[in-house]
Hints:
The chain is low in regular secondary structure. Helix content is 15%, strand content 4%.
Amino acid sequence: MSSKLLGSESDFFSEMVVTAIQNVKSVNHEGVAKYPVKSVHILKTHGKSSRDTILVNGYAIEASRSAQGMPNHIDNAKIACIDFNLNRYRLQMGV
């Protein structure tokens, strides 16, 4: 928070940092709270101002659109998490 760039927006970013750290809070069986700072990641993109910074509650994928015709936002997206390479296995029903 001592950055020259963030100093003028310290109130905005300090609230975001506190919220991000509280989101990764975990309490063990003894009631001791742990805050794993390494669980908070910063994804940087080009072209917007510092006030356009957002906190994503959940997972964020660092990828950009490869063409202007691609959508910026997808509602009710279904994402499959698989643990094998799709090039190596042939699935049933021709998938």
